[in-house]
Design goal:
This protein is α+β, with helices and mostly antiparallel strands. Helices cover about 50% and strands about 20% of the residues.
């Protein structure tokens, strides 16, 4: 195991986590950046690059495990840090616990954003990226629709909702609701159901949506749409 090679791996892991985060200079830009979206999604560079990076990481771990004589202290520290950073980055971005941490850290910024009323201004609020702010059922219940960090119009069918009680929604059958923390909730939208209900005037009345038993269940509901 060479320290230089593992240092390069650590740099690649850090770069990957940063490029796919909301902390890049272009994350809050309203420009569509279709070239970037096309490269990362349609060309499947995302999957190829991630597979290569994971394979490299696993190979380094295997070498570290099977060849103790070649271990170097700095390389071991860098390798362990890369593994932990990868796991922590995934948990932070993809799990219910990660969303709880993000909403707790972002609550003041989201509160300030809601104070400005409804908005179509795409911006970073704390540790989340908000595409739009809406008040569909109550002036005291803001919905913060979340977006991807690679261009406007790339919503993810997720909204953070601030409400003391279980929030209501128009076209409630197209949503699942789950409490994140305190008076913060996550709304999961089934895109196909939502569009199908647009023609039903009665469904537009605000009512309570069914509850998602977990973040994973909520995401499965989103992906089914």
């Amino acid at each position: 195991m060479t320290t230089t090679r593992v240092a390069a791996l650590s740099a690649c892991v850090a770069a990957w986590l940063w490029l796919w985060s909301i902390y890049t200079p272009w994350a809050a830009d309203r420009a569509p950046r279709l070239w970037l979206y096309d490269v990362l999604y349609y060309a499947r560079v995302l999957l190829v690059a991630l597979a290569v990076l994971v394979a490299w990481l696993l190979a380094e771990v295997a070498l570290w495990w099977w060849h103790p004589s070649k271990r170097r202290r700095l390389a071991s520290v860098l390798l362990g840090g890369s593994v932990l950073a990868g796991l922590a980055g995934w948990a932070y971005a993809q799990t219910g616990l990660g969303w709880r941490v993000r909403v707790q850290a972002s609550a003041p910024a989201l509160e300030a954003l809601a104070a400005g009323g409804a908005s179509d201004l795409r911006q970073r609020a704390g540790h989340v990226l908000v595409d739009t702010v809406r008040f569909p059922c109550s002036a005291g219940t803001p919905w913060f629709w979340l977006g991807r960090p690679h261009g406007a119009g790339s919503g993810i069918n997720l909204a953070m909702v601030r409400s003391d009680d279980t929030p209501q929604a128009p076209f409630a059958g197209a949503f699942r609701i789950r409490r994140i923390d305190g008076h913060w909730w996550m709304a999961y939208q089934h895109g196909a159901n939502y569009h199908a209900l647009q023609s039903d005037a009665a469904a537009a009345a605000c009512s309570t949506s069914a509850e998602a038993t977990s973040h994973r269940a909520g995401m499965a509901f989103v992906e089914a749409g």
